[in-house]
DNA sequence: TACCGGCGG
DNA sequence: TCCTCCCGCCGGTAT
């Protein structure tokens, strides 16, 4: 077995065992033995050997805690039906497996695994061994020191995060690892029966420690603490704090020496094979086969069912490849981990057949080269699911592609999810089992490790359905090619000036602090301003301000309500300000800072192509489609987005009034069309029409009202809503709307027709045929029916705009590529494209954008764009 | 996990 | 599917 010299790994057997037990459903062997704990533990142990390649290793268990801890059981009982016996029956298997792996197992009377780990790790690290502790227990983090890293298991068990001193400090506001003990002394820990100081939580503890470094420090300076209640709490619970400190400290000096030779790893292949067979740990055996020195180097048949998969050996790969060549298509699902732009592909699941039976073959990472030629072969059709993720995985994909996820989205864009299990259920009327097999692939992306990948069958059903619904054109020529563009944009990311970002966050932080003290003073009480519930109580019970509106759960405290309360109390102003700053800080500054990629220093959002019901894209992690712009404070945040080194300028191209222009085209309304043809100010013209004044006499206020109607119109706004927005009587709003539809008769007719059609068809469509089903449109419930009718009116407009910009994006991207430009598209914000550009290319970019965006479709009114440039995104507006 | 509130188009 | 405006994402609190 290949090894890294001097690396010593200690596995927290107790922690992993509990984690595995809770994270996995109860698995049993044929003989009825429970195996979930051993299964998870074994997978983890194998992963450690495979990835960390230690020279020495040990597994520590609690000897005294072999009976299931009742408090943990209580904690989980509500959600999991597992009993203590089911876990304790697996402990001997864990021991057996550890021995077969040739790893020394340590349990010592009267000591917990923590103490064994603390003692051994400390000694090894000090003697210069590169020591790593694998655990799911955060307490262990206190051991971190030079030469000692903690590998924390995250969600589930096989995902891990390596914590060293730097990582720790980053996560815990600069505290050193030892201070974790002080933290716990203050916070306590219910699950470990550590009391802490009553009423102190993580935030307060962190604040105190940042100021006074240690628990001792806090009590030495106890008189400097000005917050009365806090001081009182600390004084009252001083004994508890020090008791907790003791309880939280891991023993590092038990009588146990670190003698390296005792911890050499000496696996026993025979014993391992026997255990894997006996406890049905087929996947563990498969992974063991990948570690040289253990297992056998042959193909492993995972299952004897029709739905089975094979980890392909060389022979099988040849067979599969020739089968693919005969078929002319490959149906595959990549198995990837990591985040853009650091995706690793661990292999491909290939849907194949053997003796006319469905077979899934797993080509592992090491063998990917054998399939690379197929993927790059223009003559072989690729049938896959979520093509964008394939494109991120570094595979070169050529030829005709079929994306079953995208096809399913287009057939019904309102569905909640398009995972393969659902699609198979819906279109093939067949359930895909997923669990045991998805665990069977070593460390893959669990979501798509399914018992079968019926991509070809799905494609055979979905594509004719697209045809039947006239969606083929949009799918082939817009949605599918768009995936490549989006993958490229995501991969490039956008640079954000993190230094400025941090400064801004700090500044706003102190602004917020000041506002808080003001608010507390004005309210004469301290409370959590972030809690609408508490805020409501303060405003309406304590300060007795007039209640404006209620929500389902209590008083409403939203911006409208607060705005109306302004004259009643000076606190309102402060709260509104507080809301604004804390929104900007938490969502945009701190939230985005956490998503800056360490390597690229850029933010790599995800553009979701199968989320919205209307056909728009959405953006997440982070959402870069809702970066502030409307206020000055917001613009400052937008100004943090800058061109990176090698680029000079941001260029933004946005469609002017695209939705209203689409409405003009669809309705063919005489007035509307004329306005756009003459390139008039549409809102001013509307004001002139509905208020019956000459264009030259339209005041700013009249224009504002007209604008509200124009926009509200495409949402199906009611007189009630319009009255609310413009703060005018409902009757007046009703008159506006009536006048509007008298003047714009074509619009009225068009919207009415859309609604009638939707009633008849059960769906509505965009100009390019995109469909949205509206199952509620025939509802007897007035509200639901009305809501569906509003959707029917809005979707063709919003969706058509989405279709158009998608087509324009593809054309722009292709032209940029064709001309070999350095500049590149970074973002799409519904009607805007943001480009990172070099100065020399600005002119050519402008002409490309005008050509593509304005001319990509021919409507009865012109589509125009505004182009702006600037040193950052805020300036390019 | 549900709800509120707030940011964008 | 749930009161009067469509489409989203996200952070915070309370449960």
UniProtKB/TrEMBL annotation:
Summary of subunit composition and partner proteins: Single-chain monomer with multiple functions.
Domain DNA-directed DNA polymerase family A palm: 634-841
Protein name (database record): DNA polymerase I
Alphabetized UniProt keyword annotations: DNA damage, DNA repair, DNA replication, DNA-binding, DNA-directed DNA polymerase, Exonuclease, Hydrolase, Nuclease, Nucleotidyltransferase, Transferase
GO biological process, one term: DNA-templated DNA replication
Catalytic activity, reaction form: DNA(n) + a 2'-deoxyribonucleoside 5'-triphosphate = DNA(n+1) + diphosphate
TM segment ranges: none
CDD domains registered for this protein in UniProt: DNA_pol_A_pol_I_C (cd08637), DNA_polA_I_Bacillus_like_exo (cd06140), H3TH_53EXO (cd09898), PIN_53EXO (cd09859)
Enzyme class: transferase
Annotated Gene3D superfamilies: 3.30.70.370, 5' to 3' exonuclease, C-terminal subdomain, 5'-nuclease, Ribonuclease H-like superfamily/Ribonuclease H, Taq DNA Polymerase, Chain T, domain 4
Family, as annotated: Belongs to the DNA polymerase type-A family.
Keyword Membrane carried by entry: no
InterPro entries reported in the protein's UniProt record: 5-3_exonucl_a-hlix_arch_N, 5-3_exonuclease, 5-3_exonuclease_C_sf, DNA-dir_DNA_pol_A_CS, DNA-dir_DNA_pol_A_palm_dom, DNA/RNA_pol_sf, DNA_polI_exonuclease, DNA_polI_H3TH
Gene label: polA
Domain 5'-3' exonuclease: 6-266
Function: In addition to polymerase activity, this DNA polymerase exhibits 5'-3' exonuclease activity.
Gene Ontology MF term list: 5'-3' exonuclease activity; DNA binding; DNA-directed DNA polymerase activity
Species this protein is from: Pectinatus brassicae
Record-listed E.C. numbers: 2.7.7.7
Superkingdom per UniProt: Bacteria
């Amino acid at each position: 077995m290949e090894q890294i010299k001097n690396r010593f790994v200690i596995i927290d057997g107790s922690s992993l065992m509990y984690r595995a037990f809770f994270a996995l459903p109860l698995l049993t062997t044929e003989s009825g033995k429970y195996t979930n704990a051993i299964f998870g533990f074994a997978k983890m142990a194998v992963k450690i050997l495979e990835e960390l390649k230690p020279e020495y290793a040990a597994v520590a268990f609690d000897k005294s805690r072999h009976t299931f801890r009742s408090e943990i059981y209580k904690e989980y009982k509500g959600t999991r039906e597992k009993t203590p016996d089911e876990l304790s029956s697996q402990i001997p298997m864990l021991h057996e497996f550890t021995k077969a792996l040739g790893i020394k197992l340590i349990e010592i009377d009267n000591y917990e695994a923590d103490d064994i780990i603390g003692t051994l790790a400390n000694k090894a690290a000090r003697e210069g061994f590169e020591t790593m502790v694998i655990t799911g227990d955060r307490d262990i983090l206190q051991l971190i020191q030079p030469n000692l890293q903690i590998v924390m298991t995250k969600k589930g068990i096989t995902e891990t995060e390596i914590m060293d001193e730097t990582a720790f400090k980053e996560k815990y506001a600069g505290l050193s690892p030892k201070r974790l003990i002080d933290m716990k002394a203050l916070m306590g820990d219910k699950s470990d029966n550590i009391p802490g100081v009553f009423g102190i939580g993580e935030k307060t503890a962190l604040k105190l420690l940042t100021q006074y470094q240690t628990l001792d420090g806090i009590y030495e300076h106890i008189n400097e603490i000005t917050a009365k209640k806090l001081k009182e709490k600390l004084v009252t619970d001083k004994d508890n704090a020090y008791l907790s400190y003791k309880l939280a400290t891991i023993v590092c000096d038990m009588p146990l020496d670190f003698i390296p030779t005792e911890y050499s790893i000496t696996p026993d292949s025979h014993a391992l094979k026997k255990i894997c067979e006996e406890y049905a740990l087929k996947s563990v055996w498969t992974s063991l086969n990948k570690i040289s020195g253990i297992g056998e180097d042959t193909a492993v048949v995972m299952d004897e069912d029709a739905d089975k998969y094979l980890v392909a050996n060389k022979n099988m790969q040849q067979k599969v490849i020739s089968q693919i060549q005969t078929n002319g298509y490959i149906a595959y699902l990549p198995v990837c981990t990591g985040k853009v732009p650091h995706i690793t592909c661990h292999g491909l699941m290939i849907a194949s057949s053997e003796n006319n039976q469905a077979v899934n073959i797993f080509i592992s990472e090491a063998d990917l080269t054998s399939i690379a030629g197929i993927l790059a072969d223009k003559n072989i059709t690729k049938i896959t699911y979520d093509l964008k993720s394939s494109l991120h995985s570094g595979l070169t994909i050529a030829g005709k592609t079929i994306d079953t996820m995208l096809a399913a989205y287009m057939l019904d864009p309102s569905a909640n999810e398009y995972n393969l299990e659902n699609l198979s259920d819906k279109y093939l009327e067949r359930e895909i089992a997923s669990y045991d097999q998805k665990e069977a692939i070593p460390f893959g992306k669990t979501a798509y490790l399914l018992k079968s990948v019926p991509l070809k069958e799905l494609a055979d059903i979905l594509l004719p359905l697209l045809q039947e619904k006239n969606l083929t054109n949009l799918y082939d020529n817009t949605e599918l090619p768009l995936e490549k563009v989006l993958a490229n944009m995501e991969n490039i990311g956008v640079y954000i000036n993190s230094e400025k970002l941090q400064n801004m966050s700090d500044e706003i932080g102190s602004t917020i602090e000041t506002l808080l003290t003001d608010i507390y003073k004005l309210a004469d009480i301290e409370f959590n301003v972030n809690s609408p519930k508490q805020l409501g109580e303060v405003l309406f019970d304590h300060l007795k301000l007039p209640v404006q509106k209620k929500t389902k759960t209590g008083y409403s405290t939203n911006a409208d309500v607060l705005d109306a309360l302004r004259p009643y109390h000076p606190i309102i102003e402060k709260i509104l300000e507080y809301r604004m700053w804390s929104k900007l800080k938490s969502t945009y500054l701190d939230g985005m800072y956490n998503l800056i990629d360490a390597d690229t220093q850029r933010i790599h959002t995800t553009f979701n192509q199968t989320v919205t019901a209307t056909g728009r894209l959405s953006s997440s992690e982070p959402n870069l489609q809702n970066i502030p712009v409307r206020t000055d404070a917001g613009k400052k945040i937008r100004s943090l987005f800058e061109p990176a080194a090698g680029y000079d300028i941001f260029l933004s191209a946005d469609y002017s009034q695209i939705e209203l222009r689409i409405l003009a085209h669809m309705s063919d309304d005489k007035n509307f069309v004329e306005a756009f043809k003459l390139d008039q100010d549409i809102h001013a013209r509307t004001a002139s029409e509905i208020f019956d004044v000459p264009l030259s006499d339209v005041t700013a206020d009249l224009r504002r009202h007209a604008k509200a109607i124009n926009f509200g119109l495409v949402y199906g706004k009611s007189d009630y809503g319009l009255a609310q927005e413009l703060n005018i009587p409902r009757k007046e709003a009703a008159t506006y709307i009536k006048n509007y539809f008298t003047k714009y008769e074509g619009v009225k007719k068009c919207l009415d027709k859309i609604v009638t059609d939707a009633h008849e068809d059960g769906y509505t469509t965009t100009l390019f045929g995109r469909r949205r089903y509206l199952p509620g449109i025939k509802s007897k419930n007035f509200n639901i029916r009305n809501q569906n009718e509003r959707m029917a009116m809005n979707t063709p407009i919003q969706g058509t705009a989405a279709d158009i910009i998608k087509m324009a994006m593809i054309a722009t991207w292709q032209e940029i590529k064709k001309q070999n430009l350095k500049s590149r598209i970074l973002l799409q914000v519904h009607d805007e494209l943001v480009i990172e550009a070099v100065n020399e290319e600005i002119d050519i970019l402008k002409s490309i954008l005008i050509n593509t965006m304005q001319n990509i479709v021919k409507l009865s009114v012109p589509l125009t764009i505004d182009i702006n440039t600037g040193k950052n995104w805020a300036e390019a507006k």
